[in-house]
Amino acid sequence: MKEWMGKIRTLSLFSFLVIILSACGKDNLTALVPKGYGAEESFNVILISILVMIFVFIVVMAIYVYVIFKFRQRKGQENHIPKQTEGNKTLEVVWTVIPILLLIIIAVPTIASTYDLADESEKEDSINVNVQGMQFWWNFEYANEEIQTSQELYIPVNERVYLNMLSSDVIHSFWLPSISGKMDVNPDNENTMYIEAYEEGVYWGKCTEFCGDSHSLMDFKVVVVSQEEYDQWVEGMKNTDPEYTAESSTAQEGQEMFANSCISCHAIDASSSNPVVGPNLADFGNRTMVAGIKNYSKEAIVDWIMNPGEIKPGNGMLSAPYLQDNSMEEEDAEKIADFLMELKATDEPVDSVEQFKKDETENNN
Amino acid sequence: MSTLVATNKKSFGSTIWDYLTTVDHKKIAIMYLIAGGFFFILGGLEALAIRWQLVQPMNDFVSAGFYNELITMHGTTMIFLAAMPLIFAFMNAVVPLQIGARDVAFPFVNSLSFWLFLFGGIMLNVGWFTGGAADAGWTAYAPLSTTSPGQGVDYYVLGLQISGAGTLMGGINFLVTIVNMRAPGMTYMRMPLFTWTAFVASALILFAFPALTVGLFLMMFDRLFGSGFFDPSMGGNSVIWQHLFWIFGHPEVYILALPAFGIFSEIISTFSKKRLFGYTAMVFATVLIGFLGFMVWAHHMFTVGMGPAANSIFAVATMAIAVPTGIKIFNWLFTLWGGNIQINTAMLWALGFIPTFTLGGMTGVMVAAASADFQYHDTYFVVAHFHYVIVGGVVFALFAGTHYWWPKMFGTILDEKLGKVTFWLFFVGFHLTFFIQHFLGLMGMPRRYWTYLEGQNLDLGNLISTIGAFLMGVGTIVLLINIIKTSVKNEKVSGDPWDGRTLEWAIPSPPPFYNFKQLPLVRGLDPLWIEKMEGRKGMTPAEPLTDIHMPNNSFIPFVMSLGLFIAGFGFIYQKQDIAWLSLVFVGMGITLGCMLLRSVKDDLGYHIHKEDLKKEAGE
Amino acid sequence: MSEHDVLNPGQMPQNPEKATLEGKNKFMGFWFFLGGEAVLFASLFGTYLALNDSTNGGKSSEELFGLELVFIMTMLLLTSSLTSVYAMYHMKNNDFKKMQIWLGITVALGLGFLGFEIYEFYHYIHEYEFTLRSSAFGSAFYTLVGFHGGHVVFGLLWIVSLMIRNAKRGLNLYNAPKFYVASLYWHFIDVVWVFIFTVVYLMGVL
C-alpha cells in the first residue's frame, strides 16, 4: 500500500493540500505534519477521505447553487405551481451506488491501516515500555532495561517501540500527534500500541481522555534520539545512584530537606524497583520542561514547589505535608531546586533537548 | 361545555392552573417550547463562558474545576434539556395535527412526560447551588464520574434518570399515536415526512433509552450504594459504561437528527411548492438510518482498545450510514429543482442547513475511518464535527421549525426581517466558531481542555472561534426580541399562512382544543394540497358531526414527578446521613400513591356535544 | 361510546381489552413498553455476563448457587404464568369470579416465588457474606436478579390493587384492558426469569 500511496502523493492536488495543511500548527505537535509511522498512516487515510469528501461537496454545492439561482421565485410568479414530480428511479440509483463506491475507496485503506497499526508481531524483539497514566502525569518503565522515568520518554529514531499502557486511576489517553495516533490508557485492561519516529527531536504529547481538573495540563514529551544517544542515556539511567550526594553546598542543604520529605514519593534513581508514587526525578537536570508545561528554569522549579496547585490544579502534590502546614520557605525551595538540577543521567542533555529548550525559551519571551 | 366559549379573559392564576393540569398536546407543546428554550439559553450561556475561557492561551477566566462543570453541563443541557424537549415541542404541536388526530394516544402520559423532563432538568441543575454541578463530561466516563467528589455527578445521574423516564414514555406515546390514531385514509405511505421521522425517532427512543437507564442505575449504585460495576479494584470494568452509554448515545444523535430532517422536508417542500422528491426513498432512508443507528455505537470507542476487527466492522457500518443520508440530501436538492422557491426565514434555515450538514456528514465519514480517528478522536476535530451535525442539523431545524410552525402554535407570524437578521448572525457565527476547530483539533488541541499553552499556534483559531460564538449569542437575542415583538403586536393570521400541504394547515391557527371538528378524509400524500388543487377550500370530512370525546385535565402528573424529584434528594444525601432516606420514602410514596390513585380512580374523560360544536360555529 | 356504555356494557365483546380506542392504545403501548423493558434487561444481562467472573477473590457462582431452590422458584413462576392465562381466558368469557380466583392463585404463587427469593438473598448475605459490595460479580448478580425481583413486587401490587378495586363492580370495557396488560406484564416477568435461570444459575453452576 505504501508504494501506491507514494505515487498518489505526487499528484499536484495532494502536494497542494499538504502545503496548505502544513502551514498550520506547531512543529512536532501538529498531526498535519506527520513525522512517525502511525501519524503518517493516519494522515494518508485523512487525505484520501478529504479528497473523496471534497469531491462530494463540490457536486452537492454545484447542484445547490444552480438550483437556488435557477428556481428562485421571480416577481409576479408567486402563484406559479411547478410540476409535482414524484421522483426519478435512475437518479435515485445513481446517488445510491456512487456513494457506495466512494465509501469503498475510503474503507479499504482504512481497514488495511487499522490492522497495520494494531500489529504486534514485532513486540517481542522491540523495546517495550510500560506506560502508566496518573492524574496528571506519566510514568515510563522500560521493561527490559529495568529503568523508569517520568514525563519524558526517550526512544531511538526509526525503531518500533511498543507501549503497554495502564492507568492507576481514571482513564487517560496517550496522544503523540506528530508521531502516532492515540490510544486510551484504561485502569482495568492493558492496551498496547507502537510508535516509530522518523526524525530526532522533542515531540509534544497530550492526554486526550478527560481525566479531571488538570486534564489540559497533563503533557508529556517524547525525546527521539539517535541509537547511540539512546544507549548512552539508558546506561546513564541504569547508573543513577539512590545514594547520590549533591555537589554544591546549597544543593547539599537542599538534598537534606529533600531526604526529609520529598523522597517518600519521589525517587532520585531510575531503578524500576522504586514504587510509582510521585514522578521519578532521576535525570531531572536534563528535563525539557518543569511539570510538563513550564519552560525549564530554576524559577519554574521553585514556583512549582511553592505553588503546585496554581500550576496544575488538583494534582497529587497538593497533599504533601509541607503544603498542608505551609512549612516551605522560598529559599528552601531554591536549595531543593539546586539539588534537583544536579540530578543527571548524562552529563549533557541530548542535542534535541538542548535545542528544544532554546527554542521554547525564545518562543515565550 | 363552558370551556368551549373560552373567549372571555381568564385570570392569571387559572391560566397557570390550566397549564399545570393540561393534557392537551398543543399546550404541552408550548410548555416544552418554553422550558426547552430556557435550557437552550442556559446551555448557550455556558457555551459562551467556555469560549471566553479559551479566548487566549493560559486564560484564567474560570477555574479548572468550574470549567469542567461548564463543559459537562453545557453538553448535558443542550442534548437532554434543550434539543430533545424542543424536538418534543414540535412533535407534540404537529404530529397529532398532521395525522388528523384529536390528541395523542395517552394525553395523561404526555403530561407526565413533560413534568418528568422538567423536574429532571431542574434536578440536574440543582448541583450548581449545592457545591458544584456534574464535572465528569456529558459522557460521564467511569471511573472519573464514579470517583468525582461532591454531589454533582449524583445530580446528573438522578436528573437524567427522571427526565429519561419522561422521554421514554413520550416515545411510546408517539409510537402508539401514529399507529392507532391516524385519520381515515392516512396510510403509512401518506404520512408527512415529519410524522415519519417522529415515528422512527420514537422507536429509537424506545430501544435506546433503556440502555441509558441501566447505565445510570449502575452508576448510581456505584456512587451511592458501594457496588463495583466500574471499579477495577472490585473486579469491575469501566468500559461497560462506555458501551451502555453509546448504545444509547449514538441512536440519540438520530433521535435528534431524524425529526430535524423531517422539519426540513416539510419546509423545503412547502416553499418550493413541490411534492417532496423521492418520498418513498426518503421514508426508506429514514428507517434505514434509524436501524443502522443501533449498529455503530462503538465508533465512539475506536481508541478504547477493542482490537482491529471490531474497529474495522464499526468503521464500515458507520460509513454505510452516509448512503441513506446522501439520498436525503439529493432528494432535498431535487425537491428544490424545478420548484418555485420562496426564500423566507424558515426556508433560509433549510437552505443554510444543506451545505452545513453536508460538511458535518463529510467529517462524519472521515471520523468513521478508524485509523484516521486515532488522530481525530477526542480533539477539537470531533467537537467541530458533532457541532456541525447537532447545531447545523438539529438547531437549525429548531429555528426553522420555530418560524414555520409559530403561526400554527400561536396564531401570529414571526417578524421576517428580524428572522433573517437572526439567521445571518447565527449562520456566520456558527461557521466562524466551528469550521476552524477542525484544524485546531489536528493541530494538537484535545477536547475538554480548560486551557492551552502559549506558543502552540492555537491562539488565532481559538480567538476566531470565540468571536463566532458571540455572534451566535447575538443572533439568539435577536430571535428573543422577535418573539417578544410578535407577541406584543399579536397580529393574528389565517390557518394556512404558507399555502401549506399537510393537514395541520387545514384547521384554524391556533387550532381549537379538539383540533378537528370532524376527522378529515385523507386522499393521498399532501392531503390539503390535493384538496386545494381540486378547488376545495379545506378537507372533506370523513364522519358526520358527532360528539367528541376528550380527556380530563389532571394534576397527578405534576405531583407524580414531584415525588420522584423529592426522592432523588433522598437518594443523593442518604450517603452522608441515613436520615435522608426518609425523603426517599416520602417521594416514592407520593409517586406510587399517585400511580395507585390513577389506577383505581376512573377517568373516562368527557364529551363535547355536537350541539355545542354547532353553536360555536354560529349555526 | 358514552361513559355509561364503557362502564356497563350490555354485552361484553369477544376481546374486551381491545374493544375501545383507549383499550387498543393501552394494549399496543404496553407491548412497546415491554420492548423497552427487553432492552433494559438485555443491558443488565450483558453487564452480568461481562462481570460474572469478576469475583475479586470472593465467592464465585459455582460456590454460591444451588439449583434445587431455584428450580422450585422457576416452577412457581412458570405456573403462575399459566394461571394468569386462565384468568385471561375467563375474562374473555366474561366470568369475573373465576378470573379473580385465578388471579388470586397467580398472586399466591408470585408471593411464594418472592418469599424464596428473599430467603435466597438472605442466605447469601448471612451464610456467605456475599453482597452487592463484595465484588463486581456481586453487584451484577444482585442488580440483575434484584431488578427482576422488583418487577415481581410491582406486578403483585398492581394485580392486587386491580383485584381489590374492581372486586365489587366486575368487568367492564374500562378495566378489562387494565387486567389484560397486567397479565402481559406478568408473562414478561416470567420470560425474563427463564433467561435468569439459564444465564445466571444454570450457566453459573455448570
TrEMBL record, chain A:
One of its GO terms (cellular component) is plasma membrane. It catalyses: 4 Fe(II)-[cytochrome c] + O2 + 8 H(+)(in) = 4 Fe(III)-[cytochrome c] + 2 H2O + 4 H(+)(out). Keywords: Copper, Electron transport, Heme, Iron, Membrane, Metal-binding, Respiratory chain, Translocase, Transmembrane, Transmembrane helix, Transport. Its cofactor is Cu cation. The keyword Nuclease does not apply. It is a multi-pass membrane protein. PROSITE patterns: COX2, COX2_CUA, COX2_TM, CYTC, PROKAR_LIPOPROTEIN. One of its GO terms (molecular function) is heme binding. Residues 124-236 form the Cytochrome oxidase subunit II copper A binding domain. Binds a copper A center. Residues 23-121 form the Cytochrome oxidase subunit II transmembrane region profile domain. One of its GO terms (biological process) is ATP synthesis coupled electron transport. The chain crosses the membrane at residues 45-69, 90-112. It is found in: Cell membrane; Membrane. Subunits I and II form the functional core of the enzyme complex. Electrons originating in cytochrome c are transferred via heme a and Cu(A) to the binuclear center formed by heme a3 and Cu(B). Belongs to the cytochrome c oxidase subunit 2 family. This is Cytochrome c oxidase subunit 2. The lineage of its organism: Bacteria, Bacillati, Bacillota, Bacilli, Bacillales.
From TrEMBL, chain B:
Keywords: Cell membrane, Copper, Electron transport, Heme, Iron, Membrane, Metal-binding, Respiratory chain, Translocase, Transmembrane, Transmembrane helix, Transport. This is Cytochrome c oxidase subunit 1. GO terms for biological process: electron transport coupled proton transport; oxidative phosphorylation; respiratory electron transport chain. GO terms for molecular function: cytochrome-c oxidase activity; heme binding; metal ion binding. One of its GO terms (cellular component) is plasma membrane. The keyword Transport applies. InterPro entries: Cyt_c_oxase-like_su1_dom, Cyt_c_oxase-like_su1_sf, Cyt_C_Oxase_1, Cyt_c_Oxase_su1_BS, Cyt_c_oxidase_su1_bac. SUPFAM superfamilies: Cytochrome c oxidase subunit I-like. It is found in: Cell membrane. It catalyses: 4 Fe(II)-[cytochrome c] + O2 + 8 H(+)(in) = 4 Fe(III)-[cytochrome c] + 2 H2O + 4 H(+)(out).
UniProtKB/TrEMBL annotation, chain C:
This is Cytochrome c oxidase subunit 3. SUPFAM superfamilies: Cytochrome c oxidase subunit III-like. The keyword Membrane applies. GO terms for molecular function: cytochrome-c oxidase activity. The keyword Membrane applies. GO terms for biological process: aerobic electron transport chain. It comes from the Bacteria. It comes from Gracilibacillus kekensis. Residues 1-205 form the Heme-copper oxidase subunit III family profile domain. It is a multi-pass membrane protein. Belongs to the cytochrome c oxidase subunit 3 family. It holds the Pfam family COX3. GO terms for cellular component: plasma membrane. InterPro entries: Cyt_c/ubiquinol_Oxase_su3, Cyt_c_oxidase-like_su3, Cyt_c_oxidase_su3-like_sf, Cyt_c_oxidase_su3_a-hlx, Ubiquinol_oxase_su3_dom. The chain crosses the membrane at residues 28-49, 69-89, 101-119, 139-164, 184-204. It is found in: Cell membrane. Its main location: membrane. Keywords: Cell membrane, Membrane, Transmembrane, Transmembrane helix.
